[in-house]
Amino acid sequence: MKRHLSVTSVLLSATLVLSACSTNTDGTAAPAGTSAASAAPVSAQVDDSEREARWATSFCTTLGSRAKAALELMKKMFAQAMEAGENVSEAQMQAMQKDLLVEFMEDGAKESLDAAKQLEEIGAPAVVGEEFHQQFVTLLKTSGEEAEAALGKVKALDPASPTFEAELDKLSEGSDAKDLVAPLQEIGKNKPELNEVLKKTPECVEVVEQMSALAGK
After folding, report:
1. Which of 11, 92, 177, 209 sits 20 to 30 Å CA-CA off 134?
2. DSSP helix/strand/coil, 126
3. For residue 146, is pLDDT > 70?
4. pTM to 2 decimals?
5. In whole angstroms, what is the distance from residue 37 CA to residue 214 CA?
6. CB 178 within 8 A of CB 53
7. Residue 29 — φ and ψ, nearest 5°?
8. Over the range 90-126, which residues count as b (16 or more CB within 10 Å of their CB) and which as e?
């Protein structure tokens, strides 16, 4: 199980956009401000400040949820390996880890597509801009669709096969969604106003803290 998080790792890569936008100059997460509104769909007539808060909450909740899920997946896989010891064959171990991976992918695909729909309903606040908004929605849709497409292939793999690891690695290659991350990062770097919004959103501060902890900062 080396690179198999890549089916949804594009969402984790997207947290780099958040890290670039919502950290102080010393690289630490900014302090939380007032709580943002819930990420419920809003109409086009809603006040832009409310749309802004809802968008930021939805954006960061999506990224935070996937980051937590990936960390939990790694913990479960490690725990399984430790508990099994030498009493479980490699094929049995790979079967158990395959089940965990399938669950992770199913949840990730649904969360990505649901978040894309939610953000489309919220719309682009002025501080976010239509370009950043549309690219992030496209990223979520592409990531979710790729995860859905890969699910059937992962389920079809035989964990007892000597080529199981190689076949799983092969499925991790060629993600179209990954190509959308770098342009999104560049747009995010040039949005100081978005930076201020994210610094006031508790969910965004939490994601930055999580990613900093994972990076050992």
Report:
1. 209
2. coil
3. yes
4. 0.75
5. 27
6. no
7. -70, 140
8. eeebbbbbbebbeebbebbbebbbebbebbeebbbbe
Distance set, CA 164 to CA 77, 103, 193 (Å): 16, 18, 47
Q: Can you tell me the distance from the alpha carbon of 64 to that of 29, in angstroms, rounded to the nearest whole number?
A: 14
Two structure tokens written together for 18: 């958040």
Judge whether 18 and 185 are in contact, CB under 8 Å.
Answer: no
- Calculate mean pLDDT across residues 135-160: 90
Distances (CA, A) of 177 to 1, 41, 161, 211: 21, 25, 29, 20
d(CA 16, CA 64): 12
**What is the C-alpha separation between 96 and 107, in angstroms, rounded?**
17
| 162 C-beta neighbours (distance < 10 Å), count | 9
Beta bridge partner(s), residue 29: 23
Residue with tokens 């939380």: 32
Question: Please, are residues 40 and 57 in contact by the beta-carbon 8 Å criterion?
Answer: no
What mean pLDDT is reported for the chain? 77
pLDDT tier, 74 (very low <50, low <70, confident <90, very high otherwise): confident
What token pair was written down for 147? 């995860």
Contact 84, 93 (CB under 8 A): yes
**Per residue in 161-170, pLDDT tens?**
999 888 888 8
